[in-house]
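Journal club prep, notes for RB
We'll compare a predicted complex against what the paper describes. Inputs for the nicotinamide-adenine-dinucleotide case:
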Amino acid sequence: MAFKPMKTAVIGCGMISDIYLKNLKETYKITELVGCSDIIPERSAKQAEKYGIRQMTNEEIFADPEIEMVVNITYPTAHFEVSRRALEAGKHVYCEKMTTLTVEESTALLELAQSKGLFVGGAADTFLCGATQTARMIIDSGIVGTPVMANALLARSYHHERFNTAPYKRFAFCPGGGIIFDMGSYYLSELVFLLGPIKRVAGFSQIRNPHRTFVNPDSPLYGQPMEVESYNNTTGVLEFESGALGNITMTSESAKGTDTFQIFCTDGTIDLGDPNTYRTSIKIIDKVGKVSEIVTNFGYKGDNFRGLGVADAVYAIRNNRPARCSGELNRHVLEAALGICQSSEDGKYYEMTTRCERPEPFKPGYTERQEMQLEI
Ligand SMILES: NC(=O)c1ccc[n+]([C@@H]2O[C@H](COP(=O)([O-])OP(=O)(O)OC[C@H]3O[C@@H](n4cnc5c(N)ncnc54)[C@H](O)[C@@H]3O)[C@@H](O)[C@H]2O)c1
């Protein structure tokens, strides 16, 4: 088992960068964090100082022969170009969701990576958590019977026009950022990991309240109009190749938040919890309604492991095995979300054109450190 840390740089020093920089530097020993960049240099300067790494430009990262991995945590409209440039420069790329805006862009990146012998993939990586790995073990063992139906529901309130302080519109209102993409990717990635590829989808999707105004006086955009360019109220249905069905309902227009995520099987129900977190337990509800909580000892407990997919990808590259958060999985999940919206526009089912195998689960068993699982 090869253990050779990989020099890694982060592009994009916005809201989510703290936890990535912290974990890539401290939590995962297989990544050696060396630098960060942002088109707003004050942001990269601040993070470079905080984490004791080099403030760099994108170009400096691309040109540095020692950097092998680029972690792209810019916003979705910037993902494709940053990832393409990094691959062209000979770097492996791990990108946040949604990794591209279109299936064609995902295919272009996969082909570019393949032609250069590089890895491209990305988030969501929360399905690597102990809870979801346990759910997979339970499904594959058959002890709760056959999965027949999945239920994914998330209601949230996104009103960034009221809170925005960035000099640009939050990605949730831009292409690739609406809730079916932003949050839907967690649910869809986990469902594909558990149930396998999706065959076809259908849905209804709306942009509610599309014309808004930045109303936070602290925002540099205060008083300017703000257009919502991505669906914010979506309900979709899924048919898996396995024959299981599912629904996914995502709204960011609700006054109050709620979420549920379950898989109904012939002999019991699996309650998966919030797939936007790295969970340590799941619940099983049996035929007579008895609830049992299964607490897993998988890895570290109760923390935010963002970047786990990067660590897994580095182990994969070093040991010549497939990475779990693959570009094929990202593309399949993106196509499902886009397909639900397309179905709404066309008034008919959307047949999936991409597929991906279920990522390999981790081997069961307790380890003191999450990373020991990633080597498997
Ligand atoms: N905010 C969250 O809670 C969260 C959680 C999980 C995942 N994510 C994902 O992480 C990504 C980033 O989210 P965020 O909330 O940090 O967004 P953000 O807007 O706060 O940060 C994005 C940063 O990327 C920079 N950037 C844009 N284009 C660039 C380019 N070409 N080169 C260099 N830098 C560039 C911006 O200046 C900005 O600082 C998104 O894809 C999002 O879906 C966000």
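Talking point for the session: Residues 46 and 285 are 48 Å apart (CA to CA).
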